[in-house]
Design a protein that fits this description.
This protein is α/β, with parallel strands linked by helices. It contains twelve helices and ten strands. InterPro entries: HTH_LacI (IPR000843), LacI/GalR-like_sensor (IPR046335), Lambda_DNA-bd_dom_sf (IPR010982), Peripla_BP_I (IPR028082).
Length: 334
């Protein structure tokens, strides 16, 4: 038997399909008589799209608003992808509003967009304190998901600093002593935390961080950093894979070989990193798992579920490939 559509429901109730859609989305401004007609038509036709059954039982909206910052980057894009898959499997639909997470006005405008709808919760890719402050100032009375650090609470280290710590340990294990760090924008929380992990472990392992550079997550900024890399450096840790790939390209233009002259390790394990020449050593982050974890935490809060039963996601892990190697005695460049 063919499933009923919203157009079938609209004809049965004698209303427009837009009215049926507004009813299913939790819009309150529908006259009681019209609401009763739509309700009756839904029941008569046994209309049950994803999430509609929940709405009919509990009057709880099945829409979640997402504030998305820099989705063109591998990390944020994969977090939202994981969140979207988790939401869809639970019968929720998403309203996504793009924002500039470094601009408070942009965050406010994105919040205005998603708050125009009847939403059950807010999911924010909160890479900056600007985003967190803007949301806090709103004093929203609906569940919010921003920080997934508790999803990695099985480690004694700060989970956000673990990628930098793993990179420093790897370079120390290879015998490097004079190293550099290429970071993302320091306005980003992840950039600060990855640097913190790298600097702390470098100090513990006796590495000298002789040079640092602040990029913008792009391969272009990694390429620019290669033009300034001091000759004494034998290894570079880079806060994401895109900048690491740009750095390697820039070093090649200077006649500096990777890993023979300089070892390079990135962070993220972006899909293209293992296909680079040489294949990029990196720290794998479970972005999709993080997005699913955050979304399932949010849905547990919305539905009054037990947040402690939400499955954790994977810890960062080292992926050693061809761009890092044991330091050579005469490895420093002139």
């Amino acid at each position: 038997m063919k499933r009923a559509t919203i157009y079938d429901v609209a004809r049965q109730a004698g209303v427009s399909h837009q009215t049926v859609t507004r009813y299913l989305n939790g819009f309150e401004g529908i006259r009681p008589t019209t609401r009763a007609k739509v309700q009756a038509a839904l029941e008569e036709l046994n209309y049950r799209p994803n999430g509609a059954a929940r709405w009919l039982r509990s009057r709880q909206s099945n829409r979640i608003g997402i504030l998305a910052h820099r989705m063109e980057l591998s990390g944020p894009g994969r977090i939202v992808a994981g969140a979207t898959t988790a939401a869809r499997s639970r019968g929720f639909v998403l309203d996504i509003a793009s924002m500039d997470g470094e601009d408070g006005v942009s965050v406010d405008e994105a919040l205005d967009v998603i708050m125009e709808h009847q939403i059950a919760g807010v999911f924010a890719t909160a890479q900056t304190d600007v985003v967190r402050a803007a949301i806090a100032e709103r004093g929203l009375d609906i569940p919010i998901a921003m920080d997934s650090a508790e999803g990695l609470s099985s480690t004694s280290l700060n989970p956000r600093s673990l990628p930098g710590a793993l990179a420093a340990d790897h370079l120390a294990d290879l015998g490097h002593s004079r190293v550099a760090f290429v970071n993302g924008p320091r306005v980003w929380i992840a950039a600060n935390q990855r640097r913190e992990g790298f600097i702390d472990v470098a100090a513990q392992r006796g590495l000298q961080v002789v040079w640092e550079y602040e990029g913008d997550w792009s391969a272009e900024s990694g390429y620019r950093s290669a033009q300034e890399l001091p000759a004494e450096v034998t290894a570079v840790a880079v806060a994401n894979d895109s900048m690491a790939i740009g750095l390697i390209y820039g070093l090649d233009e200077r006649g500096v070989r990777v890993p023979e002259d300089v070892s390079v390790i990135g962070m993220d394990d972006s899909p293209e990193s293992r296909f680079h020449l040489p294949p990029l050593s990196t720290v794998r982050l479970d972005f999709e798992g993080e997005g699913a974890y955050l979304m399932n935490m949010l849905i547990a809060k919305i539905e009054g579920g037990d947040i402690h039963e939400v499955p954790r996601y994977r810890l960062p892990e080292l992926v050693a490939r061809g761009s890092t190697a044991v330091v050579r005695p005469a490895n420093a460049r002139s």
